[in-house]
Sequence to fold (309 residues):
Amino acid sequence: MSTVPAPATGSVAASAGGPRPLTDTITEVRATDPDRIGRALAQRPRADLAQAGRLMVIACDHPARGALGAGERPLAMADREDLLQRCVTALSRPGVNGFLGTAEIIEDLALLGALDGKIVWGSMNRIGLQGASFEMDDRFGAYDAECIEASHLDGGKMLTRINYADPASAATLKASAEAIDSLSKRGLNAMIEPFISRRQDGRIVNDLSEEAVIRSICIAQALGRSSAHTWLKLPCVAEPASMRRVMASTSLPSLILGGEVSTDPEATRASWKAALELPNVRGLVVGRSLLYPRNDDVEGAVDAAVALL
Fold:
């Protein structure tokens, strides 16, 4: 398969005014040969989720909700050249076997050949924009199951936030159930990311207490006509005993999400390590913590996470 040249790994900093080899070349392809995107997706070597064992999945769907910040950098994810460089670097590291993103970045990375041999999930609902009055209205405006199948992806991920004080949560739950059904009948994986959420000081915050995470799991895992192809994407509860009780609430395979860029990466990795010792935790799905580590060493951050597996 012919691909756009990928950058060498190493430094990932990109200058807005300097050379932009990835975005410039991808833009030319999009403008002159858009059908090449479909060919790249159809021809890329794929992996088998059932045979993958432990998973290290790089996530990059935050920009689609207007969530561009990472750590202390409010617009960290705004530069697409820099973002692609970081994703390509992370995906090139040994032990990384999956990616989660929206259509435009999956298509960019497919053109680069960066998704070859990876398990890929398409992010499905991105309408609940960060900070918007309608943030809890998590409608499905990105991938649908039909397109995930047509794009030769392995599954779809849905953010399923539940706010007991917001009627929009009912529509989100219904849409998530329908997406699970649509993926399941195609034999595709449905990855649900559930939270109990509330509005606080004008912001939506997720309740990461043990009880709230357990409650969100019990609600989410029952959605749809079958859970045969359903996995969970869950936050890591800090205390090991709490995490054991959280994971005891489900028999579904689960991945632990990375969350915000940590001020204490070693403590974060320790909590991931404890969670990975539980039998139904199948791996990690991490975005900003690995793509935008505080020291900007993407390779080092990814390798340290892979070592936990």
In short: The radius of gyration is 18 Å. Strands lie at 55-60, 98-101, 119-123, 155-162, 189-200, 203-207, 230-234, 254-257, 281-286.
